Amino acid sequence: MKRETHPHKNRIALVLQGGGALGAYQAGIFQAMHENNLAPDWVVGTSIGAINATIIAGNPPETRLERLKQFWERIGHADNVNMSHVPDSVRKLNTWLGALDVVLRGVPGFFVPRLFSAFKFGLPVNPEYASFYDTSPLIDTLHDVVDFAYLNAEGGMRLTINALKVTCGDLVHFDNRKIDIGVEHVMAAGALPPGFPPTRIDGELYWDGGLYSNTPLETVLDDEPRVDTLCFMVDLWSPEGEEPSTFDEVQTRQKDVVFASRSRRHIENYKTLHNLRRCLREMEARLPEDIRRDPEVCKMAAHGCGTTMHIVRLPYSGRDWHMPSKDINFSKGSIEWRWNLGYSDALRAIEQAGWLAETPAHVGVVVHELGHKTY
Fold it and tell me: Please, what is the average pLDDT of the chain?
């Protein structure tokens, strides 16, 4: 008999970064959550995280995992060798050749090169074609793996995907609680330049939301009204790393730093604000009844809060031989390996289930790393 992993029935949120082919790790994490009665009530994503999030929210519970597998099988390409029966040096070469194939020919069902585009020669083109690759194949793929009517039906899973407004740099949240999300919103959330073209929605051009913030944790932290939340946050890029000494290592470290989560800073800021809200609530409780009824006091007291946020951080631990092309390595062997890694890491977090332990009354934010938790 399985242990109850969600006895308090807090809202469950799943936050998914951008990271291209590394997104298979996110799919494995969702599988573990799905199998342990921790399916999210709300999923938030950007870039490949927005695609995974839309597939999860855009299907009934019984087909979510099947549709995720269908997507990743479609965009994966066959390996030249059986990755499980060759030495590490051959696996590395096969991965490099696979990434080169993606650069030259694209990814089936995802994107293809613009072979005769003037853009690559520095000449002006229509803004919606200003990219090295054409992502129109992804439109058909998304329609095959997402039920958009189900996604936008009342009472379903909440979905928020983020995109950047090209002309002003503002981050925009597309939320199915406020609008009907269509394939164009998902395309916008994954339109990373200069590889992918912007998407036009209601006259405005949008790029990948990861250009503004690759980990949309703030979307959950800033959500109102505030409720007790168990948030699973998946980090695909590492802010920490060894000093690089080769060209590949320099490029890899640069990518990790640029796209890594700034979650620690966001969480520390959130803790400070949350503690102030708790103090405000406690202060209100100590006031005499007649003062509490004062309209100005009521207005200030409305900012008080007594909710608890549990954040489970799941970092991608694959090093991929320090290859800067790891995010375009769509080989089936690598996708399967990353999926399994995400699945096993999530199972470890669920086995620890630190969110089940009693939280001190004064604590509003608890961060759970694999192996320990921090207040």
Answer: 91
